[in-house]
């Protein structure tokens, strides 16, 4: 079955030109925004009525999105449409879908083109007619689409990808007591150590029958596969907060008792705040030290963290949508 999908905005002539040149279309989906200053649902319904008069056998469906100015809503809509048509047995292969990248906002056009590569569909662009064009001018351009190859991931790869996607990274030895708004947080990132701890915690709280336990070695294998497919990147240099003690010696701020040496077990770290400024109070057996926040950082080459890519974020999101 031949299925067309087209985002639209204020102008819709590209859809009429598209259908005039393309034959055999059985289903047309129109993706449009919600009503704001412009009544986009009204524009979509008017176009549907006009097209039904011209193409009575064409089945036309409407799909509303929340925002035309970010990528995800349009990609979500296209994903839902493709899954629905496949579930309804209207399509079985990607080539039965053609996406039109002409209409709507720049974000909608970008999302549509990304979706074409994501699902390996066809993609068309409709040129705007110009004065003096020959009568036989063809306005529909068939765009080259190279699939990014989103083969189904193994369950453990998808599990790890979703864990990374849901994680919020901050410098590992950030002390408790600093407000979130005063800390640099990277969404979709986590250190390997923290990820292993999360895996271990999940394995203790969830039933793991018939599931292989993920250890450090298997995590490295999974991470390499995800990185090879472009879903994550590995960052080898991880920052750690450091300070100079009263003797001028640079030390890593140790906030986790598990990481403290025996002689540091009695150290107690407290965050003080005065006049919107933080300071770190470190109580040791030798006395109390106050260090102004933020502390300096240095790179710890022994640590590794993972950062999800836009493609990885999309894959994780898709799995949640259609689990």
Counting DSSP E segments of at least 2 residues, the number of strands comes to 17
Continuous helix count:
8
**First-last Cα distance:** 26 Å
Physical arrangement of strands within the biggest beta sheet: 3-2-1-4-5-6
Q: What integer is the average pLDDT?
A: 90
Helix percent band = 25-40%
Q: Beta-strand level of the residues, as a percent range?
A: 25-35%
Largest sheet: 6 strands, mixed
The structural domain count equals: 2
Brief overview:
Helices cover 33% and strands 26% of the residues. The relative contact order is 0.11.
Would you spell out the secondary-structure blueprint of this structure?
Blueprint: E1 3-7, H1 13-21, E2 27-33, H2 40-54, E3 59-65, H3 71-87, E4 97-100, H4 106-119, E5 122-126, E6 140-143, H5 155-166, E7 168-169, E8 186-187, E9 189-191, H6 192-205, H7 216-228, E10 232-235, E11 238-244, E12 250-252, E13 268-274, E14 277-284, E15 287-292, E16 296-300, E17 305-308, H8 310-322
Parallel strand pairs: 1-2, 1-4, 2-3, 4-5
Antiparallel strand pairs: 5-6, 7-8, 9-17, 10-17, 11-12, 11-16, 13-14, 14-15
């Amino acid at each position: 079955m031949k299925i067309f999908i087209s985002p639209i905005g204020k102008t819709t002539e590209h859809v009429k030109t598209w259908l005039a040149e393309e034959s055999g279309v059985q289903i047309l989906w129109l993706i449009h925004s919600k009503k704001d200053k412009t009544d986009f649902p009204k524009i979509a319904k008017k176009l549907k009525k006009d097209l039904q008069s011209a193409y009575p056998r064409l089945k036309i469906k409407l799909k509303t999105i929340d925002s035309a100015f970010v990528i995800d809503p349009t990609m979500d809509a296209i994903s839902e449409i493709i899954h629905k048509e496949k579930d309804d047995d209207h399509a079985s292969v990607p080539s039965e879908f053609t996406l039109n990248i002409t209409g709507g906002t720049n974000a909608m056009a970008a999302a549509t083109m990304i979706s074409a590569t994501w699902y390996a569909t066809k993609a068309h662009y409709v040129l705007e007619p110009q004065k003096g064009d020959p009568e036989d001018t063809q306005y529909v351009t068939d765009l080259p689409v190279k699939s990014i190859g989103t083969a189904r991931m193994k369950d453990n790869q998808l599990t790890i990808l979703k864990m990374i996607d849901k994680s919020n990274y901050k410098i590992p030895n950030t002390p408790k007591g600093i407000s979130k708004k005063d800390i640099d947080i990277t969404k979709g990132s986590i250190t390997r150590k923290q990820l292993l701890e999360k895996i271990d915690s999940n394995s203790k709280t969830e039933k793991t029958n018939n599931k292989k336990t993920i250890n450090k070695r298997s995590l490295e294998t999974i991470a390499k596969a995800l990185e090879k497919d472009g879903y994550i990147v590995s960052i080898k240099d991880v920052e750690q907060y450091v300070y100079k003690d009263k003797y001028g010696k640079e030390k890593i701020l140790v906030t986790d008792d598990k990481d403290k040496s025996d002689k540091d077990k009695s150290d107690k770290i407290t965050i003080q705040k005065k006049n919107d400024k933080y300071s770190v109070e470190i109580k040791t057996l030798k006395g109390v030290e106050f260090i102004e926040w933020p502390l300096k950082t240095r790179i710890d080459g022994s640590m590794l963290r993972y950062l999800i890519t836009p493609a990885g974020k999309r894959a994780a999101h898709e799995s949640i949508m259609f689990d």
